[in-house]
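Ticket #4471: complex job returned nothing on first submit. Input attached below:
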Amino acid sequence: MDPTTTLRALLICLLILPAALPAQEALFSRQEIVSPEIHEDKSVTFRFQAPHADSVQITGDFLPTVKMQTPYGEMDVPGKASLVRDENGVWSFQSEALAPELYTYAFIVDGLRATDPNNPFLIRDVASVTNLFIIPGERADLYRVQDIPHGTVARRWYDSPGLGMDRRLTIYTPPGYEASREKYPVLYLLHGAGGDEEAWIELGRTAQIMDNLIAQGKAKPMIVVMPNGNVIQDAAPGQGSRGFYKPAFMIPRTMDGTYEAHFMDIVNFVEANYRVKKNQKARAIAGLSMGGFHTMHISRYHPNTFDYMGLFSAAIMPREDATAAVYDRIDETLKAQMDNGYALYWIAIGKSDFLYPANVAFRKKLDEMGMPYTYRESEGGHIWRNWRIYLSEFVPMLF
Amino acid sequence: MDPTTTLRALLICLLILPAALPAQEALFSRQEIVSPEIHEDKSVTFRFQAPHADSVQITGDFLPTVKMQTPYGEMDVPGKASLVRDENGVWSFQSEALAPELYTYAFIVDGLRATDPNNPFLIRDVASVTNLFIIPGERADLYRVQDIPHGTVARRWYDSPGLGMDRRLTIYTPPGYEASREKYPVLYLLHGAGGDEEAWIELGRTAQIMDNLIAQGKAKPMIVVMPNGNVIQDAAPGQGSRGFYKPAFMIPRTMDGTYEAHFMDIVNFVEANYRVKKNQKARAIAGLSMGGFHTMHISRYHPNTFDYMGLFSAAIMPREDATAAVYDRIDETLKAQMDNGYALYWIAIGKSDFLYPANVAFRKKLDEMGMPYTYRESEGGHIWRNWRIYLSEFVPMLF
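Support reply: We reran it on our side without changes. The output follows.
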């Protein structure tokens, strides 16, 4: 085959294959739209082709927040900006120069939310899907894939005798794990309500953060286990035997103590199947929101098991009059955990987090008990930006 | 904490957390829309809320195809159907009863393509993102996650000395692999132009097909390696050091022989790092479109290496006057491959595939040489539906 024929064949492929996909009807006339376009000065232009629309707006966490009234009080939510239409029906908006960060956004076209058809990178948070982009530099470089050694990310199923089913988890093994004879420490990293075993690896950029911190010598090589904390699911929506269904935020039995009671099924699986150190000093557990609640309870249910606890925006609301089963013997078991000793009990929360008062109350309880912890207060609220930051700060303190 | 307090806390989470996501402004007033809704009789209702739209259509591979004129002739593309608006501004369309299959679709709102905001399950094909759903039954049950033993899917990086970089691949190890002492055979499964190491696992449902065929006793437990065939990429768009960018269909140097010349980097990595049988009888290679072209060339470049070849809708256009470097010594090496012997040379293509004539010419060449092959002709064209079917048929013939 001569080069001309090769080229012609490739052109046929180029022109015909996309036409077989749904709705590519504008294939031969459309203009190529770039969105988002990140400029040299770190401002970003977003574009959306909609000749017949009356209004196109953008919303995203790079815009200043606005106050919103809710039944539970005033909340900060991402603001909006209006795009301007050009003569070809392409709407655009250029942001200010943005600080390095991973950002998410969506368009609002005539009042309806829409993803950016020119940006195929999407991220699911519970049932919402948004586009994402990264402004490089500073801490955002921890979230990027760099040209450094990379760990392996596996989705693997394990048997949970306690829950009576095979369940799926995500596991990060550090660069060199497979070829090494060394034994590694393990961080168990737990998601929040509405999340699953995909949350930390996708929204949390765990593999990128670990690869980068390890390459920089700031974190020890470790295994990170990201299990599914919804005890009625075998796997994330779409990945389990229930098939495709709309993910829900409230899932039965996630905070009733069942997960905590059977968490050792996961630890036992990991310790039987990976080359890991099997002692308290080599085990850490951390989680965000509901995962912080799980972390608090799991670590006191099993007080000789974990040396490092990370409570990120934890959904802990201890009360003296607690009657829910998960809170049984809380004072006694926290005291046992304290007496047994641990390396780090780390509590992090944002100043505007709706769980801030609950964390104040929890710290007060620990203070009264004399139970040691390290406290980290950040800006912002109950958002993934903070959880990526907390993970990046927590991991260097481990092992 | 008493149960009422727990409930109130969960309600706060439910109401406030989604409000922190972009564009959830209708949080407290919106109605819950179910889309797609799969009915008992296997018809499907699609719904889209758009009170201000003038027209809402749907396109997808469950609709009858229509003819479309292209510069290269008439093509079959998915048709469209119109949704009907109700008094609340919710548009809907109910399909006919659908045959069991994995289907993809998108909406067209006032002429603009839009994904379904009520279906968070999306799939990327090159730069296009569509929603998906599965009608269960028959062969579609191979594409579903069933309550059976599951293999492990890992994204892992390997060193390619030939290409001078670390590269990412996806690898499926069958249920029981980790605990076994057995050695396994390996299928190398290659993507098409515009694809990458995510294509077969996501669009091809490889893990589900393998789990199901193995559980049914129809396929032997095997390892499936899904590498990246774009030699200028270290990983899929968004997963490599180039970061996020719009995936392209035409990528330089994908069909110039470079990948074929260095393919043993992948085989060597797998055989050094996994418990596999290291002989020709335990190696298979298959690919779709460009991956079929790669399969044909790789298997003749390395004629003592693979015992099973699968060319799915292969982009092979051999010419007697071939001058492109990848075609060097084609007759000689094909003859060497034939003389050396193999278990299976499987060629599959759809009747309306634009590569059908090229495959006729290739089979004619093989016939003239006396080179044995098995031929499978299906309905349809150059589409993922066929590639999932071909994989499901090819795998049971292996090892």
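The CA atoms of residues 159 and 166 of chain A lie 4 Å apart. Closing as resolved unless it happens again.
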